[in-house]
């Protein structure tokens, strides 16, 4: 079973780069899209689970 997880974290850049350091596959670099409060990144872990990590910016 593969899961898609969406998690709010305090520092999306740090979590994303740490995941890559530990062997996860980067799918989308953290970015804040125009008009959104969230900065999001996405990666896939060793089991195939997809992670969307997000930090809400002021």
TrEMBL record:
Domain VOC: 1-56
Gene3D superfamilies: 3.30.720.110
SUPFAM superfamilies: Glyoxalase/Bleomycin resistance protein/Dihydroxybiphenyl dioxygenase
Domain of life: Bacteria
Name recorded for this polypeptide: VOC domain-containing protein
Organism of derivation: Sphingobacterium bambusae
């Amino acid at each position: 079973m593969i899961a898609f997880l969406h998690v709010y974290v305090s520092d999306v850049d740090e979590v994303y780069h740490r995941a890559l350091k530990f062997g996860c596959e980067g799918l989308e670099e953290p970015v804040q899209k125009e008009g959104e409060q969230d900065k999001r990144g996405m990666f896939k872990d060793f089991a195939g689970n997809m992670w969307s990590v997000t930090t809400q910016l002021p």
